[in-house]
Amino acid sequence: MNTLTTQACLRTYNRLFKENDELYHEIARHFGLSDCALWILYTIREEEQALTQSDICESLFLPRQTIHSAIKKLEEEGVLTLRYKEGNRKNKELALTKQGRLLAERTADQVIAAEERALSHLSEAERSRFLQFYQKYIDQLRKELTEIQSAQLSESETGGKK
Predict the structure, then answer these.
(1) What Cα–Cα distance (Å) separates residue 44 from each residue in 76, 138, 160?
(2) Structure pTM?
(3) Per the count of CB atoms within 10 A, which of 59, 63, 136, 150 is most buried?
(4) Which residues contact 75 (CB under 8 A, 6 or more apart)?
(5) DSSP code of 153?
């Protein structure tokens, strides 16, 4: 019987993850967008509500400066505008301009539709299991990495002494 070791599984998972990432990179490049710009447009279209820069950062798990730079460029290109939230002079909401809405229709909306078509080839049960297994892996990986961080923090506090 051929068993899948954790090492072989991890190698395959990493290859698939990178291949998936490359698909999005290629389509962003095809559209003449940076990866981050495509993901910002995607997130705005997917959420269907007013978002702030902080909301985008949280949704995409990307550094604030990376998002800020991409938003600034999109604003300069006339794709989106920033406006203060009503009653809040701290956080600005992103709003697509007419040009931005047209760009999102030609780019992010097409990607979302392609993803939906791809997922439609899986049964409802397969989609559910896929998400359950992926979430279980992420939860366990988070736990394992947190333990590494905690152990290293403890070592640095004690000077490496036990």
Answers:
(1) 18, 25, 47
(2) 0.86
(3) 59
(4) 81, 82
(5) H
